[in-house]
Amino acid sequence: MHGRLVGWRRNLAVLWLGTFIAGMGFSEIMPFLSLYVGELGHFTRGQLTMYSGLTYAVTFFVIAVVSPLWGKLADRRGRKLMLLRSSLGMAIVIGLMGFVHHIWILILLRFLQGLCAGYIPNASALIATETPKENSGTAIGILTTGYVSGNLIGPILGGVLAQIFSIRLTFIITGILLLIVFALSLFFVHETYRPNPQAQATRQGSLLSQFKNPTLIIVLLVSTMIIQMGNNSITPIISLYVQQLMHNVGPITVVAGIIAALPGISTLLSAPRLGHLGDTRGTGRILVFGFVFAILMYFPQGLVSSIWVLGLLRFMIGISDGALFPTIQTMLSKNTPRELTGSIFSWNQSFQALGSMFGSLAGGAVSNWFNYSGVFIFTALSLLLNFILVLFFIPELRHPWQPKA
């Protein structure tokens, strides 16, 4: 028994460090990726925004398609194998991005990056299966802080590295960091999980047919996609927008990294408090607040002329994310049979990836047709339509003052 205790604690410590480095590595290349696209050719402004959107979107498209498949394979072959596949694959692919000189080679590598994804969810699954039940909630909570912390530091670190060294060298440094994650996972993570073929064989019929209220599940999954689409429609243009607001003068990659990290910081600060309010005052109230607050915060972002005001509004968006994503996950959990929780959350991850893909494409297209400010107005209108959809199909949310949601 003592050996098992030591084992799960060691796994948690190693995977916390692994998810921290992985989260940092995945996110540190995001703020300047569109600037890097601009270095790969002589593009018009329209071509630059379209290529940037495609470069971001292709990774998320692949993740959306393959995520449930990797989840099934992990159940059959074990989670450690998936950790090794993901960390080694990402290390090679992201490292190679520092050597490309053609936009379509970069897009191909971003496609392969999507195939290699899956480190974070498999780390969570391994901790959940290897940790004693009485400690699993605490362990998963601790593991989550590793990824979120890395995700917050990543954009700032990436911006600083790109400013001090170069964008190309930052990709190579990120690849080296992910090689460290591979080595940690290979030598220090231990898994005793064995697949249960009988449990897998008992699941029959379509997924939605096993829910009491499949319409609610569909609406919640679609909401995850639209909210994430709103978040990611900004990603392809944020560094270009920052460059415009700063009149192409100053440490643009550093500022873009900070602006990209601000919503994550406020999400980390607000999500636990909003979750507690949801438990005590009703999840419906928090969901309605999140939608209204997000719509009000997105509209003015396209009208600002100051980088400081943009930063403040981006910080506020993180508060709406802290209300929306956890509340939707809570409602999914409450309305899902226990034996289907893993499946529905893998589908939720796929819908989130689809939102990232559609958002990246929409951000590139809208900024090409209109301008950067048009992207923020498009996002606000998308969330307004989503809010109307939610109120139409989830009648109890029309009266959010009632505590039951």
What does it look like?
With 405 residues, this protein is an all-alpha fold. 80% of the residues lie in helices and 0% in strands. It has 16 helices and no strands. It has helices at 2-28, 33-39, 45-77, 79-97, 103-115, 119-130, 133-164, 167-188, 197-201, 214-233, 235-245, 252-281, 283-298, 307-334, 341-369, 372-393. α7 (133-164) runs antiparallel to α8 (167-188). The radius of gyration is 21 Å and the shape is globular. The two termini are 42 Å apart. Mean pLDDT is 81; it is low at 1-5.
Brief write-up:
The chain is mainly α and 405 residues long.
Describe the secondary-structure layout.
Layout (H helix, E strand, L loop, with lengths): L1 H27 L4 H7 L5 H33 L1 H19 L5 H13 L3 H12 L2 H32 L2 H22 L8 H5 L12 H20 L1 H11 L6 H30 L1 H16 L8 H28 L6 H29 L2 H22 L12
Helix pairs in contact: 1-6, 1-7, 1-8, 2-3, 3-4, 3-5, 3-15, 4-5, 4-6, 4-8, 6-7, 7-8, 7-12, 10-14, 10-15, 10-16, 11-12, 12-13, 12-14, 13-14, 13-16, 15-16
